[in-house]
Records
---
Amino acid sequence: SDGARGMAGLGSPEPGPTPVPATRVELTVSCRQLLDRDTFSKSDPVCVLYTQRPGSHQWREFGRTEVIDNSLNPDFLHKFVLDYCFEERQNLRFDLYDVDSQSPDLSTYVDFLGQAFCTLGEIVGSAGSRLEKPLTGVPGKKCGTIILLAEELGNCRDVATLQFSANKLDKKDFFGKSDPFMVFYRSNEDGTFTICHKTEVVRNTLNPIWAAFAIPVRALCNGDHDRAIKVEVYDWDRDGSHDFIGEFTTSYRELARGQSHINVYEVVNPRKKMKKKKYLNSGTVTLLSFAVEAEHTFLDYIRGGTQLSFTVAIDFTASNGNPSQPTSLHYLSPFQLNAYSLALRAVGDIIQDYDSDKMFPALGFGAKVPPDGHVSHEFPLNGDASNPACRGIAGVLEAYQCSLRRVQLYGPTNFAPVVNHVARSAATVLDGSQYFVLLIITDGVISDMAQTKEAIVNAAKLPMSIIIVGVGQAEFDAMVELDGDDIRISSRGKVAERDIVQFVPFRDYMSGGPGAGLSMAGLAREVLAEIPDQLLSYMKARGIKP
């Protein structure tokens, strides 16, 4: 039947985003002034890369370079290709050996020349994505330096913007005209087709003009400009049994010629053509415009110098429990970190690689603060109102622990002041050189929902994202609402321009014992996963290029 052709799994024809594959990064390794271990010639170095699985402390060999004979300053030809995940701390270890045998067994290499540790984020986040580190590990010796260069692998990053109209399409509806939409498929090697785009439905017309749409060239033809692209035209029906009007084929190369007589296509229904001698077509489709530009990635902005500015806000309300009692979420045990400290470490350890000065403003809210005991919803953890920044994540943890001894937990739980605090900073840097990330760690029930919603709607226009980690056993319904994944947040009839909030309940990642590290890596991954897209959505909306 015409209507059923190719319609399996189409559902309602809402235009949908194309999923983005993982970013792949190519690492190039060079060394300078390596140790000379050979008596009669120079060392013959090889570099071995080790990685860790998220949450595991076990190093696994990832790969090794070729051996370069007689060189203390090798530039290795062999590259390491890694999947880059912004939301994970990807630990890397580079070991250098002087090779004296052909055996793959490292113990027979005999001479260890030194090693370096870093994260993939540290390399990517360095100026020009180039990191130089001293090699260490041979007591009493200078081991030289290692130079690591990261480059994003070129998989076609072009995005095409297309617009189509149609003329004199077949009338399919008994009452009124057709409600046409188009479905695009790219051909596969085996002759099958994969759906890659659906237009919106234009109601009640045989001469629709569809809205322009952007699609990665990768999705349209995967880089092969001559690969067939099939387009099917349907009349939308509410019950999903959309009527097939006809189809045509084209290719990226043809479409790229833009508006011309070549890009006017006859829409043909093969069944009708077989049945009717005088059948010409079921209408025509015309390409109105075509443009292509390179899609910028998160890494393009980081490489271009965009810094992530990280601020922490910690909930000091009384509902957390008395900090001197082991049942309190703020209890400082000599044996293990509390939930606040764990969440801060998990997220902060990754973000700090992307912040060159490693100075992090840290605020508290919901406590009575000295000297007069007034309730504050944005007090500096380090006690310095003029400069609440702490050095590194270790500095934030230290300031947090000192604050617990200084302030009295109180209430209510107001988020708006800390959101507005970061928004004020973000509003002064709109040129894309900085992007602000606020981490709020809270035990839950929010007291100023209306004000917080308004603050978030205003902040959505600024270069900032908000991460909320909920600790403890409270119901976090309000946080899920702020997250805005399902329904975009609004305030006084104004809808947030972007989704900038990510909420994660800490208890989902709480596992005691040996798996605790794994759950912290999972927490970091979940919490940070949306930041790259949120940064891109801001840059795109503002037309900021890397």
---
Amino acid sequence: MEPAPSPQEKYHLITRNLQEVLGEDKLMGILKERELRIYWGTATTGKPHVAYFVPMSKIADFLKAGCEVTILFADLHAYLDNMKAPWELLELRTRYYENVIKAMLESIGVPLEKLKFVRGTDYQLSKEYTLDVYRLSSVVTQHDAKKAGAEVVKQVEHPLLSGLLYPGLQALDEEYLKVDAQFGGVDQRKIFTFAEKYLPSLGYAKRIHLMNPMVPGLTGSKMSSSEEDSKIDLLDRKEDVKKKLRKAFCEPGNVENNGVLSFIKHVLFPLKAEFVVLREEKWGGNKTYTAYEALEKDFAEQVVHPGDLKNSVEVALNKLLDPIREKFNSPELKKLSLAAYPKAKPAEKGTKNSEPDNAVIPSQLDIRVGRVISVEKHPDADSLYVERIDVGEAEPRTVVSGLVQFVPREELQDRLVVLLCNMKPKAMRGVESRGMVLCASSLGEPRQVELLEPPAGCCAGERVYVEGYEDGDPEDELKPKKKVFEKLQADFCISEDCVAQWKQRNFLTKLGTVSCKSLKGGSIG
């Protein structure tokens, strides 16, 4: 038998690769006396994807450090968060999460018998817990509750009261699960500090909080269940994994917001303590890295090519996914998967979201946030700019736009814009354009044009969608004869609040609305 790790070794295992720890001294004090009791919770909403391997990898670290680990399937939270999980699907989705999370843990070699699994509704509907919710609501301000949930609870124009309850329930979970610490992503930080502020007011101890960094998705932004291109599903076929990795943002030499590198750092290295870059002999052959820093350095210096990195991650990832796919190939779990996440049925005629069978819908458009890397005058057309725009792909896109008389070149440089990405490439005075920068235009004369502006904090490649049309895959390329964009554009407009809309539904990113500076009532094109 291996000797038990020392408190210092346990501390290292528990905190490695974390972004932040609140309560470090308390953590070390407990480790010197006994094993740490910790929990990780997941709301049973959208289908788990490969980013869930990041907390799974840390759970493996916690077990190696001798921690007593509880996994909470937060079913009630899933309903409270703007009803992301409808009540009638709550039980089915919780069962799906239980099966898929256990399959993930088994695929990375975590012994399930060392873990405790709990559902939120096992204790959150008790008399004692409910009374504590009321006690907490009598001391928490609306401002603090809203602020605490800002990074986690879905933000909508008219929020429900349930979203204000969410942070308080998560704080109380620490007491009712009888843990020393809670583990989560750094997006949970405001809820964690909320718990530290308010639990003592009920006579309960302040807990330790451990935070993982937010791992970029394949587009360079946060990996999200609601953004199809940003994630790889746990049950995706091998050919789908290859396709998504091929499109992933992995610019040569760029180590910032690189989802491929981040997955290696936070999942593959902690699990295997090494990573093998697979290469043909003519390019130097395979190379084994035993330290992530060495791999990142070689990638930054372009010793490692993005194509080789993606191919190597594909092989390693499929090894993790194979046992999960095999488990979910059983008739019982196939049935559960379909029942928990049924395909959306078309709305009945006459209802608010009803569309004729042959109607075009906004989700057919591939609209993304882009960052303008360079702007030059078109060599053969004084009214045109030639821009290179980063939209989260391996290489920036070349886009030609007629903005010379409306937007000064220096205002475009390094600016975030909104780009339609699935128009058929078109030669414009000899330069092929692979997208359209979307702008607001005044209806009267003289004509005024303003760029559509994504919310502050967006990353290049983030999806822009129309409210109510978050789901559905955009077409790979719009067919000019079908005039999909032109038909939708007829109902594009700028609201009185300067928000971009389609049929009075807002253009959104995950951070908020898309707007323009001042052209109320304008058109969009």
